[in-house]
């Protein structure tokens, strides 16, 4: 007899967790129990995220033909649909998740994914890892027997990396090279550099010709002018900065200027601060990233700043259309 949990055991348990959460999405104890379960084994978090993505896929597209092998990203901001398909499949979630995961696992070794403005996607990589692709971003994926390699072409991504000692997980963004095992971290392209946020584990970061630097959970690293700077940020702050994975913008004393920059990344209709005296005012709250008008109205109330809504942009601080 052995108490070692097999991959099949973990996948079955993950499918069960997804089903239970679907039935009781607001159960705080259930969520706490799930978090405890995932913390006990790094493989469990990857299996749960993959099962969750497969479950979401059941409502988002018809089953693929048997010969189809391309990985399918999950659009996080998909519109709500009638629940009948999930109800039909309630009794066979484990089978459904396994079938969906099989499609991704058989995906071609090289693929590219991109999001448009306002879109966020979650992509299971087939070996237990998951990547979330933020708005207006592009990545190239190469899954080989000796290495798992992702290149960030533009924008921002977050990874939950499954352990695999025989295949390093490598991320490239310009001159930056990251290597990780059983970690969770994000990478964002910046003008002339990149930003790394680590929420779990340790990531090795290096620039061409330089020795690698370790970036641990709760830390942020920024590359500028050929240098990697690491600073402590804290897991709570990192979690807020990664709220985009759920389609949110989480503010806790951030400036209006910062908030506007984040909303403008996610929307075609841009926010404009017409009264620059407001730029440094601090804001608190969690907002839907794709609803800039609701955010502007909240600013109007909290800061007493007039708001003027136009077809292509929203003025904050402008008192009337005649003042434009």
UniProtKB/TrEMBL annotation:
Alphabetically ordered keywords of this record: Membrane, Transmembrane, Transmembrane helix
Superkingdom: Bacteria
Membrane-traversing stretches: 88-107
Transmembrane helix recorded as keyword: yes
Keyword presence, Membrane: yes
A GO MF term: sigma factor antagonist activity
Domain named FecR protein: residues: 113-203
Alphabetical list of PANTHER family matching this protein: PERIPLASMIC SIGNAL SENSOR AND SIGMA FACTOR ACTIVATOR FECR-RELATED, PROTEIN FECR
Protein name: FecR protein domain-containing protein
């Amino acid at each position: 007899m052995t108490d070692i949990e097999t991959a099949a055991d973990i996948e079955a348990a993950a499918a069960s967790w997804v089903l239970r959460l679907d039935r009781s999405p607001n159960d705080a104890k259930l969520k706490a129990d799930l978090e405890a379960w995932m913390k006990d084994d790094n493989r469990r978090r990857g299996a749960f995220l993959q099962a969750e993505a497969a479950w979401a896929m059941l409502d988002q597209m018809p089953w693929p033909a048997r010969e189809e092998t391309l990985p399918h990203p999950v659009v996080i901001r998909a519109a709500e649909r009638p629940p009948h398909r999930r109800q039909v499949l309630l009794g066979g979630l484990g089978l459904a998740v396994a079938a969906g995961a099989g499609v991704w696992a058989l995906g071609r070794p090289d693929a590219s994914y991109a999001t448009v403005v306002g879109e966020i996607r979650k992509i299971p990589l087939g070996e237990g890892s998951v990547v979330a692709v933020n708005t207006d971003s592009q990545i190239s994926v190469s899954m080989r027997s000796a290495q798992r390699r992702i290149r960030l072409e533009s924008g921002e991504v977050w990874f939950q990396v499954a352990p695999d000692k025989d295949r390093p997980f490598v991320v490239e963004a310009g001159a930056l090279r990251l290597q990780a095992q059983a970690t969770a971290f994000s990478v964002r392209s910046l003008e002339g550099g990149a930003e790394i946020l680590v929420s779990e584990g340790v990531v090795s970061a290096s620039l061409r010709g330089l020795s690698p630097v370790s970036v641990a959970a709760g830390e942020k690293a920024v590359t500028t002018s050929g240098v990697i700077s690491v600073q402590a940020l804290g897991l709570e702050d990192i979690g807020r900065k990664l709220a985009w994975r759920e389609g949110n913008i989480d503010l806790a004393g951030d400036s209006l200027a910062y908030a506007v920059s984040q909303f403008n990344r996610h929307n075609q209709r841009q926010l404009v601060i017409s009264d620059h005296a407001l730029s440094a005012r601090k804001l608190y709250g969690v907002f839907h990233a794709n609803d800039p008008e609701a955010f502007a109205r909240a600013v109007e109330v909290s800061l007493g700043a007039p708001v003027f809504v136009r077809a292509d942009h929203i003025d904050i601080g402008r008192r009337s259309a005649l003042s434009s």
